[in-house]
């Protein structure tokens, strides 16, 4: 299948959603599923959805809990446990926001040093915390958290360790095979970033069956809408198309990192579908951000608290768009 | 690992996951039936608003984009219809989501929440999750007993949930008694009017809960697009309250809780007056028909202000439920609410109502 883009003047690289067009056939199929929209989400379809997701990740249905987006997975976890929360900053904002919303005390641990993102939780911290967050690949740095590191944390942590793999499809590495070995492991996945269902809201939690049962008390079936229930199975029929898209996105991403670094800025190597660029200071960042906006290029700056926890002001995150979009960004930045 | 009891919130350990009613597909397969009608979940039998369906069809091609977080356009439209400020509206992933938000925003451990003994179970679920205590007040003549609720208010009382019309009884609390009640409720207690079935009400004594919001009382109203608009499948409901209370709810809402399709479908359904009238007409006719037939059969039922009827079979409804199922008619058993002799039947299309009456004649001895 050929990937085609509609050219638009405005280049929106803010939210990190799947920016490629969905297969036309898929859209047609989804539009056909509307005759029963007057009915509540179906328990039967929900079971089927769990089967589809279990099949996709190679586990059993009892290991899967679908939710209204992976944001809801994060929320269900924060609502289901009590005690201190460890958050490896800079990272995705919802771990902190969900802790605040649930009234859980939080400890933000700085993990970015000398332009390297390394999760360095101390034994003391891991002894005390009830929830330990890991975002892999990390948002916004795009860094991969090595498997050894995750296992080390799983072994030392006294609380639950949650690995947010919402951008898994770009990294291609997972720890879901460890759920039976480590009863304190929960993984979160999404259909927003790699499959283009952000507007439909579908995410899911993966863990051992005892943990899933507990999370299910809060994550009830009717929270996943009828369209989302049916969409996962349809989307996964087009896995070839998506895989090709991910390959393309990664190629464009790596090329963008190279271009930006050649221009004398510092772009982080990314294993995700976005690239973090570091500038000298807040002033310069503001100037660049404004300059990009003037050129109709929209990006997320470090001061965007809805998206980032503990990201300093000198950063801008660029979602990886089409090749022509990223070339255009590089071209505009070259003239800065 | 830490001791599980210290790790998991107490409310979660006590909860049983919700078991949904039997879906049509499953009943068909299990019993080898060709046609099954579902009168179990108070959905709109005559289907969704056609305008909503068209809107969804158009929107499907944008589903790779995140939804607009606060559903601004929908808030504006609802606010405009009700002549309110849009800051007095919050949109959620179904009316259930608004109930949860209320619980998450206001219930602390040890707080008391009062509701009726026979009502929608979601109030109890969120109260337990949040570590609150649920005070269930017995109904009086199958209606919320507002006088008794007043008696049960104490310093720990945080929220009173009034389901009006009440699910599953279909009864309402009336204007005058609500006025008395609102006089007596301490100002710091939040009164929630769950008006999921608001559109179906015909009784002139139905209270104008919005007037209490406008007076500045701590009142939250919940309404939904799942019932009369016929789009339960996409999940969208909303809350109405003062900008301050809505602000509190917005603090606990998930950033993208209401999906794109739900937002456009709800917007379109607000323009679909034809569908709205059609659903109401069908419900009125169905109600009349069921009343007449049930009377003839000598079955006791509660006159309803909603789109369902609560019927007393004067015997255990379990076996009758099973027999109805075998006839291809799914209803809801009263045991959900500890009313084992009752069934709750959604008012369906004329054809569905006839099928139900025919089936009940066949499975019960009259």
Descriptive account of the structure:
The complex is a heterodimer of chains A (336) and B (366). By secondary structure, chain A is of the alpha/beta class. Chain A is 40% helix and 18% strand. Chain A is built from twelve helices and 17 strands. Chain A has a seven-stranded mixed β-sheet, with helices on both faces. Chain A has a four-stranded antiparallel β-sheet with strand order 12-13-17-15. In chain A, strands 1-14 form a two-stranded parallel sheet. In chain A, α3 (70-80) runs parallel beside α4 (94-102). Chain A is globular. Chain B is α/β, with parallel strands linked by helices and 366 residues long. In chain B, α6 (95-106) packs parallel to α7 (122-129). The longest helix of chain B has 25 residues, at 273-297. The termini of chain B are far apart. The model of chain B has no long low-confidence stretch (mean pLDDT 94). At the A-B interface, α1, α2, α3, α4 and α8 of A face α4, α6 and α12 of B.
